[in-house]
Amino acid sequence: MGTVEKQRKLQDLEEQFYQNKRQIHRQQEEIDHQLVNFRKETGQLVQKIMYLTKNDHWDSRQFYHQMEAIDRNLIHTAQNYARQLEEKEQELTRSYRKEIERIHETNY
Fold it and tell me: Which residues, by range, are in coiled-coil regions (predicted)?
């Protein structure tokens, strides 16, 4: 493999690596954004429910516990997905480095 071809392969590899990395970061940002929106909308919903049921006799503690459980479950799910994205990014980095080594070792 010639020097020019190696440089082109390395450049293509680097561009693909950073494109994949940006995509992972966008996914992580989207998770964060959706989590913030969910909490905001949930808070607004809770306030509406409290307003609409202010004269009703029901156990608001049970409602809050259910909402907290949903929130914990959502956070747990978001954290798992974020962890999967981090693992994907680490694997991407490992693959990128191996491919760079392979390209450099060719014709040596």
Answer: 71-102
CB 43 within 8 A of CB 86: no
Q: Which residues lie below 8 Å from residue 60, measured CB to CB, with a gap of 6+?
A: 50
Scanning the structure block, which residue is given the tokens 């929130």?
71
pTM here is: 0.71
**Region at 81 (left for phi over 0; alpha for psi -120 to 50; beta for the rest):** alpha
DSSP state of 106: T
Which tokens belong to 49? 């429910």
Structure tokens at 26: 């966008």
pLDDT > 70: percent of the chain: 96
